[in-house]
Each structure stands twice: as C-alpha cells, then as structure tokens.
Amino acid sequence: MRVSLSGEGTLDQLILVPEKYGVSFLKGDDVKTVFFDLMDDSLKFHDGQLFVSKETEKKEMLFQVSIERISKFVVLDLSSVFNNDGFGTPESPGNFDNPSGVVGAYLPAREVREGLVEVEGIPFLLKTEGLDNMRCLGQRIVLPKKLEVRGLHLLAASNHGDYELGVTFEGSTVSVPVTDWCVPPKTLTFDFRYTADGRKQNMKCGLNLISVRVERSIQEIVFSEVPNVHVFAVTLELVGEGE
After folding, report:
1. What confidence tens digit (pLDDT) does each residue in 23-41 have?
2. Nearest to residue 93, comparing CAs of 130, 126, 127, 125?
3. CA quadruple 65, 70, 72, 73: dihedral positive or negative?
4. Is 234:63 a contact under the CB 8 Å cutoff?
5. pTM over 0.70
6. How distant, in Å, are the alpha carbons of 7, 50, 236, 238 from that of 70?
C-alpha cells in the first residue's frame, strides 16, 4: 500500500475499511463462510473458505533492568522498558493520551528536571526525552539480584479515566488505584499540558506517588495488562536499611 500526501497539515490516523468482513467455519465436513459485503451493504453466505485465522504469539514482556542504591532506596532504570512518550515540547511532541494516534496531549518536558528527582523524600529516576514511561502491557521486570524489600514506590498516572493496576511480587498480587493524569490531586503537578497541536492548555495535570507495602524478598515485579496506565518511575525501599 502506498499513500501520497501534499500540502501542510497533521495526519493523526489512517483508517483502512475492508470490503467485506465475516467468519469461515466448519459445518460437518464442509467449510462455510458468512460475511457482510460493505460494497452492496448486504449479508452473504459462501460455500468454501474466505477467511483464514491468524494465530499470533504474544511476545513475552520480560526485561532485565539495572539498579542504583541510594541510602535505603534502590532506584530502577526502566529505560529499556519504556514504550511511550508522555513528556514533550512543541518542537519534539509527546503523546500521553492517544494510543491509537500519532499525536496526542502531553506533559511539559521543560518543567521538570531529567535524572534523579526526589518526591516526598523518595528518589526516582525520571526521563523526559524520548520514550519516558511504560504503558502497562504485562511487563515482567527482573532485578539483578534478590532484595529484601519493604515497599514499592511508583510515579504513575492514567489516561481516559481511573484504573486498577495489578502488581505481582513473587506470586503475590496487590491491586493499586491509578487516577487520571488530569484529575487532582497530583503529587507531581504541572500548571499546564500541551495539546496535540502544540498549544498550551491551562489544565493542571501530573503524576501521583503510589506506595505499595511489600515486606518480602523479591527479584521480579510483574505489572498487569492495563494499557491506559503509565508508570514513569519505580523505586524500592529496602528492609531495615539506613535507619
């Protein structure tokens, strides 16, 4: 397929509409097909197979990450896990809230420092350039070694509503609420966001600090499949360290 464009503008989505859609199935020893023909707006039947099932193997979302010890905390480097750009500038826009499109609204990258930042006394490794957060798609994060962990701390937010995110440590799962990025209150708040066309929109949006009690030895963290939940940073708090 080739698409040619001319002039100026922004192409957000390209939608392909099939001429027909339906299903092929076995009836006894024969293959039958029922389908809807969009060309003449009618439902049709066909002796034989028109549609073939395509089996797709789900890619295992396993990532080995590096860590940095800071006092009683361990900061995770999630740069290899990130799959979304929630921060941006008009010159280099992001796309926090439009997973099916090329462009979307995004947080202002120049309003926060990239690198180690402290939020309510907890250090986090924050990125603002390029891919800077993880849409939760069932990622399994593996640490270099087992750690005795008291708590897990996240910087996270969701788009298009509030969600429950499942976080699993060594077979034990907890459910944590993640609220919409533009619904207050937020722990890390920005006075505005950028719209898809690069305009400032005076709407307070941001990220929440979410803390989960762990109290166990862990080497793996698994996030459930909730694509509208974005995790920007993860820090572990160790048991009995630095106290």
Report:
1. 777 777 677 888 778 778 7
2. 130
3. negative
4. no
5. yes
6. 52, 60, 10, 10
